[in-house]
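Lab meeting prep.
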Amino acid sequence: MYESFFGMSHTPFARDLPTECLFENPVMKDVLGRLLYVADKKLFAVVTADPGCGKSTLLRKFNDRLPKDEYILLYLSDSKLTPKWFYKGLLEQLGMESGFYRGDSKRQLQKAIEIIQGVQKKRVVCVLDEAHLLDKEMLEEFRFLLNYRFDSESPMALVLVGQTELWNNKLKLQRYAAIRQRIDMYCTLPPLDRADCERYIQTHLGYAGCRQDIFTDTAIDRVFQISTGIPRMINRVCDKSLMYAYQNQKRLIDDHMVSYVAEHEMLAAKNE
């Protein structure tokens, strides 16, 4: 609705921006580089972030940057995942039916990966999203899976992605020490700082084709304060501010307008 009013060709703060148009700060770039290294060396990595801080964006960029002629990416996101369904899900993505027993399915997967690496000359990368919801049995299974050929090599790269509690409330604890010792790389995505918040907003407005300044410096200050640098919240504050400005026929958004939107238009968001 507000796009034509501001001369935009796209909606700036939508979820479906093309991957190449998504904002990438130095931290995101560094974590992406680390994950590409993990994929190349078949390592075990853990990535955590608070909700809305860019885990999905990171995975979209990671998927796009893995050369498809060199890698096969397997992706699972299931809060109720068990070892049996873990192997079943991966084998199905490889076009295979899983065995009835967990051990049979694990051997099937390992054999399939051997063939992929030996015949297709590709590496397999497995990404498990929402990993903070996995129980201890499932996390222990990764340790057994990676203990391959007398612990001399890993069959594939494994990346666990989840909220901060995955590390703080699980992997960091003593009872997870055996799993933690297997982890080759641990990365976090923090909220954006004030400078990156401004660059984030400018990047999204640029994608939308906006050629004029819409948010004043004080408005961006207020967006940063309200969102605390969380990209998902920046999207919501900016989108609702643009709608409010359009409804009031204002072409410049100041801090007072952002504050009004946060107080009156985002009550539902705060209660979610």
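Slide two material, second protein:
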Amino acid sequence: MEFLSKESINSKELLKQINIFREMEYKEREANNTLTEAQKKRGHYIELQHNDLLKIIRNEFDIQVGQGNFSQTSDEFNLKIDFQNILEMLKGRLNFEETSKDKIIPTSVEGIFISTYIDEWNRQQPMFILTIGQAKQVLLRESKVIRKAVIQYLNLLEKRIRQLERKKGITARKGETEAIKMLLEYGEIPKEKHNLYYMTYSKLPFVALGMKRVERDKLPADDLEQIKELESIIQVTILTSIIKKLEVKAIYQECKKACIDSLVDIEQKLIS
């Protein structure tokens, strides 16, 4: 099954960044008097069109329709990353909410997700959703300078997404910890066993996902999101189980079952 990664960028966002750095590269060359004769005659940089980028993506990943060299000093161009643009791009995306401009459709062809957007004439147009790695692969066709600048942008985007997911995960973890504390009081668990309970419940999301427990800072945003959701489920299950006056051992089994059921439910929704 294919899953839409949160560490992703759509083809329109990628196009925007490519053209930003194409223009900056042209202006740098113009200022340094290093334009080729063809570039001088043209008088402007070549703006990549979205349709052409879609063709590049289709060609790069074998998707069927219907389904210049620079000197070493060129690498020193000061192509700055627009952090504000990264923040704006992330608004609404992390929760995969449908917007009036972009509609995410969980359809995958050759590992590339197909989506749509509404253009300025209110027409539905195709676009692709790429992982950060796929976007970097597409950039192999760009110049060394542009490729380096856009990859830097993509790396910052990926880092920012992970930071936001980690921040949300901390909030969920705090709620789960409070629920475990209530469980310990409810079950009158001896103090010397408290750490064992915290450790056991902390490992439960990883157990449900079939993962080894690792440092969360090293996890991709998708895994952090799933762990956060499972921790919230554990929190609610503990509290409802206490209300039902279940035995402490039974509460753990209820939490484990709730986590597994949640993952099965997510998979069924993606299939349907």
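Talking points for slide two:
The first helix runs from residue 11 to 31.
The mean pLDDT is 77.
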